[in-house]
Design brief:
The protein has a single domain, classed as Jelly Rolls (Sandwich), CATH 2.60.120. Helices cover about 30% and strands about 35% of the residues. It contains 4 helices and 8 strands, in the order ββαββαααββββ. It is elongated and about 50 Å long.
């Protein structure tokens, strides 16, 4: 199954847990891979608390400067590619009784590094 996520900012974090839950509904047990098929976005599992999400944006901005990269000569988004490489394009989530078996504070998050954009997320 796949779904589309609209992001609002260049560096954005969107909780997609409910959409992942809908994608695995009816499955008994196993694992689900949540994958974003873009080179400037990532998928992670972490807490969706608003202050932490702001910290994620600040952390990635501080870790990878916006400018000064060779790839910027081509299209000006090297920072987005580098941030996404640190995050990775997918997360694996256990499925139990047709639901994501996440910990109490865990959520599945799409991290946008080159928005605003529409992103396709696959759950397999």
């Amino acid at each position: 199954m796949e779904f589309t996520v609209s992001t609002d900012a260049r560096l954005d974090v969107v909780d997609v847990t409910d959409r992942v839950a809908a994608a695995v509904a009816g499955e008994d047990e196993g694992t689900a891979t949540v994958f974003v098929d873009h080179t400037t976005a990532g998928v992670v599992v972490n807490e969706a608390e608003p202050r932490l999400l702001e910290d994620v944006r600040t952390f990635l901005s501080n870790l990878v400067p916006d400018e000064g990269w060779r790839h910027d000569e081509l299209d000006g988004n090297a920072d987005s590619h580098l941030r996404a490489m640190l995050l990775g394009p997918s997360a694996t989530v256990p499925v139990v009784d047709g639901e994501p078996a996440l910990g109490r504070w865990q959520s599945v998050l799409l991290v946008e590094c080159d928005g605003p954009r529409e992103r396709t997320v696959r759950v397999v």
